[in-house]
Amino acid sequence: MSRRLQLACLTAALTIILAGCGIDATGPVKAGTPASGLRQPGSTTYHAQLYFVGPYGIQAASRPVDSPVTPQQALDLLLKGPDDAERARGLITEVPVMVGRLRAAATTGTVDLYLPQQVAKLNGGDLGVSQLVCTAANAHVPGDRQPPSVDVHVHEPDTGGVWTVRCNAAGNVVPIPSPTRG
Questions:
Q1: Euclidean distance between CA atoms 102 and 145, whole angstroms
Q2: Which of 10, 122, 132, 155 is the most exposed place for a label (fewest CB within 10 A)?
Q3: In this model, does residue 13 exceed pLDDT 70?
Q4: What separation in angstroms does the CA of 47 have from each of 17, 63, 115?
């Protein structure tokens, strides 16, 4: 057999083998719902940063929202407690039921947090206060300050006391001495 004929036979055999590689000539096959979770180009996604208590201390939880949330809106979400997904991660709240309305107001670079009762009377203790302060500090605050540089002025009723704190990157409340505030 000549070399050309051998080469032609080998080429024909390879073509037949490769043509039958097991891929059927079918059209598209439905395999579930379309992909989700990716943003449309040009769209904006907003999240509320809420702080709960987990097995290893204070933990941030990010919830999708329609627009940037104010400190008051973030605290209102926090007071509803962890959602199903957050509970599945082991997150709980130590913010106790409070007598009265918890209020927060943001000004440039600061948040004023008005507690309805004194911190000493809150059953949640330090963890509950940390949840409140960090959630308020990580909401949308006017100005160019971002956490952990946002000052939170905590107002306690019946004491006239106001103390200034910040929430650090680990979710811990850090006192800030302020000569103008008690």
A1: 23
A2: 10
A3: no
A4: 55, 5, 25
